[in-house]
Write a structure and sequence with these properties.
alpha+beta, 5 helices, 5 strands, 3-stranded antiparallel β-sheet, globular
């Protein structure tokens, strides 16, 4: 095996798209979220921040972690207009749509979603 095939950090930092399933019926939607993977430097730094929040008994750690690894999205609309990504809107989305937060969390945990081959 070529050692280069074992290096995953860059691919995880680059990120991957998850196609969001409808929380209503489970069907695929035209909404995609771009996230970084668990082997990314961003994820590891966010986990440390999350642990600090747990130690200090602060709220919001899990959502903050998801927001920190969210790079953007496409296909999200409101009243027929494209909703541009911001960390604040991502936070609001994950808080108000726990099903989507769960989908993103599960996708990120699966390392093969970030590697090619």
């Amino acid at each position: 095996m070529d050692i280069e095939q074992l290096y995953t950090a860059d691919a995880h930092e680059e990120g991957a798209e998850i196609r969001i399933l409808s929380p209503i019926n489970g069907d695929e939607t035209d909404f995609y979220i771009i996230v970084k993977g668990v082997d990314s430097k961003s994820y590891r730094e966010s986990v440390r921040a999350y642990h600090r929040k747990l130690i200090n008994k602060e709220d919001g750690g899990e959502i903050d972690l998801l927001v920190a690894i969210t790079k953007g999205w496409r296909g999200l609309q409101s009243k027929g207009k494209e909703v541009k990504f911001t960390p604040k809107l991502a936070y609001d989305l994950y808080v108000n749509a726990p099903n989507i937060a769960s989908q993103v969390d599960a996708f990120v945990a699966e390392r093969r979603n970030f590697t090619k081959g």
